[in-house]
């Protein structure tokens, strides 16, 4: 993949992006530019697994899918890889999930790229019409749940250790920060 990335000239198309295939790094496409990050830390992955365990049963009960680290096409040429998504029924063999199928998107904020999750992706997810956005702070386990209003998100709930986040849409679940971060 390295040679293909460094030898490439001009903006990346979706077809060129997909031709990179699976990589060790997270490679996302934002309007012709690649955003490459190393694999997540073990702490990040543990939080993702614990959150996924909580949300998976709730998603199945609601007839939805919980998926981890999948390509989500927000629009042509804009393909992030969120940490977790809850979707309607989708073809599990497709390379990408369409934004219209996503009900909730979760990002675990890494200290090295917090601005990407809190600003860039938040804006792009809202613009794509994804109704719910959940941010998790790695350091504290703090949870912030946003709901889309127009082309922006508005914070619905924010909890810290000792408190509980109760989801009623698109799934019913309760999440305690201490269950994610020990």
Q: Can you offer a commentary on this structure?
A:
- The protein contains 5 helices and 13 strands.
- With 182 residues, it is an alpha+beta fold.
- The strands form 4 sheets. A 6-stranded mixed sheet has the order 3-6-8-9-10-11, sandwiched between helices. It has a 3-stranded antiparallel sheet with strand order 2-1-5, with no helix packed on it.
- Strand 1 and strand 2 (33-37) form a beta hairpin.
- The model has no long low-confidence stretch (mean pLDDT 90).
Give the key terms.
13 strands, 182 residues, 34% strand
Overview in brief:
By secondary structure, the protein is of the alpha+beta class.
Write the topology of this structure.
Layout lengths: L1 H5 L7 H6 L6 E5 L2 E5 L4 H20 L3 E4 L2 E3 L4 E2 L4 E4 L8 E3 L3 E8 L4 H14 L4 E6 L5 E7 L2 E8 L5 E3 L5 E3 L1 H4 L2
Parallel strand pairs: 4-7, 8-9
Antiparallel strand pairs: 1-2, 1-5, 3-6, 6-8, 9-10, 10-11, 12-13
